[in-house]
Specification:
alpha/beta, nine-stranded mixed β-sheet, four-stranded parallel β-sheet, 34% helix, globular, binds threonylcarbamoyladenylate, binds magnesium ion
Length: 314
């Protein structure tokens, strides 16, 4: 059994220890003003894959990337004048903005689950801010709870939910808001409220001067649109043990292909490479794509979920 997570009371030494883990590609549970987040280096696919492994998420939802100042946001997303007004009004704070991802931005494909937009937030909590600065990375962080369970607002909730699946928990006491951030997709003529939260529609309209439309549950664009958005243009064949005529084979383990998710059969590496590998198929000369079988265990369940959606008839 892996060792119990180290729970550290928040101070400078704890931040340094947590930042060292982040730079080594490990996830760390850290308080924000909303809920505890499970943070990892957003620039590293393998680090982000370890978030999914710890949460036991059966599929890849896109994650929020946390930054400490506006200059960092500008390196990742296109900040329109409307987005700047919202950032001026509510950052640092419990508002997440969904904005166009800049081409070549240093964000692992697994963070956005292949979307062309990125959710960014500048948190107000000193622990999360200090961790971003000390690790020198933008931090991807979903709420620090097991998949399908309620969010954690205390270090003890994190320990109960994720236990030894996280190496370290920074204990900053109870979170101030206890409710996840408001998520808004920003366009020039309107805002779309993707998740209600501490900052309400009236406050968003006031600060932006734009109308807010509410996207109701079930039509949330991110997870809902994933399958159609991310499906590659070419037909996809799963559980392929060999290459048929005209196919581009994505291998795994002993099955070598034109490309591989992980030659050593490592699921963390495979998750980290999945969206990049699918992207690469867009520009190859092939009539179809085949993917080697991925073991249906651990992160393999999430990988197979994404592959099944990408292969679904449309
Ligand atoms: O308060 C919070 O936002 C907390 C703290 C840790 O910052 N984080 C949080 O993350 O609640 P999570 O992963 O539990 O929820 C993130 C939500 C998901 O519902 C996801 O679908 C949505 O953000 N999301 C992420 N990227 C998106 C995108 N590009 N477009 C639309 N929705 C997106
Ligand atoms: Mg959550």
């Amino acid at each position: 059994m892996p060792p119990a997570p180290q729970t550290l009371t928040l101070d400078d030494a704890a931040i340094d220890a947590a930042a060292a883990l982040i730079r080594a590609g490990q996830p760390v549970a850290v308080p924000t003003e909303t809920v505890y987040g499970l943070a990892a280096d957003a620039t590293s696919g393998e680090a982000v894959a370890r978030i999914y492994a710890a949460k036991g998420r059966p599929s890849f939802n896109p994650l929020i990337v946390h930054i400490a100042n506006l200059a960092e946001a500008e390196m990742l997303v296109e900040l329109s004048p409307v987005a700047r007004r919202l950032a001026d009004a509510f950052w640092p704070g419990p508002l997440t903005l969904v904005l166009p991802l800049l081409e070549g931005a240093p964000v692992a494909g697994l963070v956005t689950a292949g979307l062309s937009t990125l959710a960014v937030r500048m948190p107000a909590h000193p622990a999360m801010r200090a961790l971003i600065i000390a690790s020198g990375r933008p931090l991807a962080a979903p709420s620090a709870n097991a998949s399908g369970k309620i969010s954690a607002t205390r270090a003890s909730h994190v320990a109960a939910s994720l236990g030894e699946r996280v190496p370290m928990i920074l204990d900053g006491g109870a979170t101030r808001l206890g409710l996840e951030s408001t998520i808004v997709a920003v366009a020039e003529d309107q805002l779309r409220l993707l998740r209600p939260g501490p900052i309400d529609a009236a406050a968003l309209e006031m600060a932006s001067g734009l109308p807010v439309t509410t996207v109701h549950d079930g039509t949330i664009e991110a997870p809902g649109q994933l399958s159609s958005h991310y499906a590659p243009a070419k037909p996809l064949r799963l559980d392929a043990v060999d290459r048929r005529d005209g196919e581009w084979l994505i291998g795994f383990g002993a099955i070598a292909g034109d490309d591989t998710l992980s030659a050593r059969g490592d699921l963390v590496e495979a998750a980290a490479r999945l969206f990049d590998a699918l992207h690469r198929t867009e520009s190859v000369q092939a009539s179809g794509i085949a993917v080697a079988p991925i073991p249906h265990e651990g992160l393999g369940i999430a990988i197979n979920d994404r592959l099944a959606r990408a292969a679904a008839p449309r």
